[in-house]
Amino acid sequence: RGECCVCRAQLCLPLQERGALGFERHYHVTDPFIRRLGLEAELQGHSGCVNCLEWNEKGDLLASGSDDQHTIVWDPLHHKKLLSMHTGHTANIFSVKFLPHSGDRILITGAADSKVHVHDLTVKETVHMFGDHTNRVKRIATAPMWPNTFWSAAEDGLIRQYDLRENSKRSEVLIDLTEYCGQLVEAKCLTVNPQDNNYLAVGASGPFVRLYDIRMIHNHRKSMKQSPSAGVHTFCDRQKPLPDGAAQYYVAGHLPVKLPDYNNRLRVLVATYVTFSPDGTELLVNMGGEQVYLFDLTYKQRPYTFLLPKKCHTSGEVQNGKTSTNGVSNGIHLHSNGFRLAEGRAHGSPQVELPPYLERIKQQANEAFACQLWTQAIQLYSKAVQKAPNNAMLYGNRAAAYMKRKWDGDHYDALRDCLKAISLNPCHLKAHFRLARCLFELKYVAEALECLDDFKGKFPEQAHSSACDALDRDINAALFSKSDNAEDKKGGGPIRLRATGRKDSISEDEMVLRERSYDYKFRYCGHCNTTTDIKEANFFGSNAQYIVSGSDDGSFFIWEKETTNLVRVLQGDESIVNCLQPHPSYCFLATSGIDPVVRLWNPRPESETLNGRVVVDMEGASQANQRRMNADPLEVMLLNMGYRITGLTSGGAGGSDDEDSSEGQVQCRPS
Fold first, then answer.
1. What is d(CA 60, CA 348) in angstroms, rounded to the nearest whole number?
2. What are 181-197's pLDDT values in tens digits?
């Protein structure tokens, strides 16, 4: 922070105050600062886990809430406790928020006692107590343009809206998730778009994240009340709780089909935190039981896998991130009965040469691949892809590295890379074959068979290679096994839509919204999020240059947003880091977790050569977290007790692919 202030003093004095502030915020988080980030101070005052943190708008106050049912307001720049008060809650506090435009006087808290309390800090009193929820309140959200309004998300499946001007005793239900997902659904987190306060994002049970238009919902309900026939319904008439177009769903494309496997292993998928980028164009989600995902709200794309019923595949279907009017999209032909590669001659398309510095990065990645350093290879390929986004070879090579590493979601990212490589070079032989293998690994067996058949037709010289024969055997064995179980699955519907009982039954409206869901843009791997359901992930920097997330191993992880490469891991807690809240205008980060302290982090002076909080072996930490995520609950408990678990592979997902021992000419080495 000192260097940033010096730069401002030297370079920005002639500028107007607004320009100086813009300069400071633009450059307040840079790569050198990230690489020097270290512990500045520990704020002590709580006697229980610190579950939530919140900066005020100016960044000169920090509020915290804890299991001790107290909230503390700190002066973080001077490491002082300014105020501590008991909130009146009778259980753990999970959320704390300053009410906008209240002069930092009003603080809102939500807790495990199902209550939402409003506090006046100037008199240290609780001035409003709301008890409308029937289960734990997990998050509070506020909006700059709605100064007297706030929202809450609770495990009763409800999103409630409060207006302090109208009635201090009650709230109204804005969204009832139980009408869509059954009585067992739980809302876990929510946030309001900072640039357009009409949009509210909600995370809940399951892999789907929901984006709502608050204004549309309110207008719909007003029109319903004003309608002359509002109270008259026929037997078949049904009033929709939300108007068409008021909700958009987002999901990592591979997760719905993985749900049965995860459920069988008692692995729960739940969004533990959602937040918008500073410009409001991106949505970041920390998916409990999985990875961190970034969704692009402007350039939306449909999931790349075949999740919809076959009858929904039409010539105008949106697939692979592009809208196709003739059935051909990115070199892939989508028939109503399945999957076909686009026609084309089987000869190589000319490949644009990489500039020398990128060719060196590619060669380094190839060398890492040869040494089975899969993550290092992926990161190097990703670095090159960012600079050369139209090079098919880089995507094809990165796909191979993903397929070798086999972390959760890697085969889906490999499939995406294969499709991108084929769109850039329709005759990319290895990308075609890897695509068939990815479809098989993702349990799309029929599509994998069609893809492999098309590959053989397009590249007949490869039709009897050992890799093709091995994949053919795998697919036929899977089809045979699937036919044996066909009777069990009759009438079950698409796997992403299937419900298991009346209490978690999914409505027709919910099914439609899920079928229309959008896919992610980036995925961030390395952390572990399975033990707590309040774990955060946030943008770091005014331009959202970095992504930060807590982890079950007591560390927090920092990635470059655009390359998704992991750049820094720091030990932030003795057990688990749950909260990470970046300062609004400085390279300054507040974290908390199981320890009863708040930790503050900023770039340390160059004279400080020793930083005991740095996790040097980032790859080792990431691999250990993948093993932790794939361990059964008993193993996780033993890990937390300090026992070493054996019998888990370093890749976190079992042994090598079947084709590894008989690669043939199409699979093994990168290009």
1. 60
2. 999 999 999 999 999 99
